[in-house]
Amino acid sequence: YAIVLTNQDSLFIYKIGTEKKRYIALSTFYYLFRDDNGKEWILYQQKDERKRFYIRRMSDDYEYSDINVSSFLFNEKKSILLMDIEKEIGGEKKQFIYLLNLRSGMKDSIWSGDRAFNFRFDNKGEQIAFISGENEKYSIWYYKDGMKVAEKLASESSDDFDNNLIVNNGELEFNKDNNFLFFQLIEKPLPRPDADAVQVDIWSYKDLHLQEDQLSNQMYPRIYIGVIDILNKRIKQIQTADERLYIGTDLSHTREHLITTVGGGPDFWWQAAGRSSVFVKSIADGKSVLLKKDVLYAHDWFYYLRFMFSPDEHYVVYYDPIEASYFSYEIATG
Question: What is the rounded CA–CA span in Å between residue 265 and residue 242?
Answer without folding.
Answer: 12
